[in-house]
Model the fold of this input.
Amino acid sequence: MRTLNRLLLASLIAVAPLSVIAAQDAPSPEPEVTIRTEGDKTIQEYRQNGFLYAIKVTPKGGKPYFLVRADGTDANFIRSDQPDMLIPSWKIFEWK
Done:
């Protein structure tokens, strides 16, 4: 019985650090917001676990609007207040 208790205690001590590591890698419920300025616009990028899902654009003299993903691709964003308007995202040149 003593060896069983020691074995149980040793396994608990071995597993404890794994639970701490798993807790650190858990997804956060709060989005990460990156704020930057481009010209006369303030841009806020909303990310969840590194995935960019929305952009809030606030022009200096205008009404703020959101750009959200049109589908699952990286480049297609649409304005949330004008869902029929696609934002162009062409690649002109690409170097590798």
In short: Strands lie at 32-38, 41-48, 51-59, 65-69, 77-79. The chain has a mean pLDDT of 76. The domain at 32-79 is CATH 2.20.130.30 (S-adenosyl-L-methionine-dependent methyltransferases).
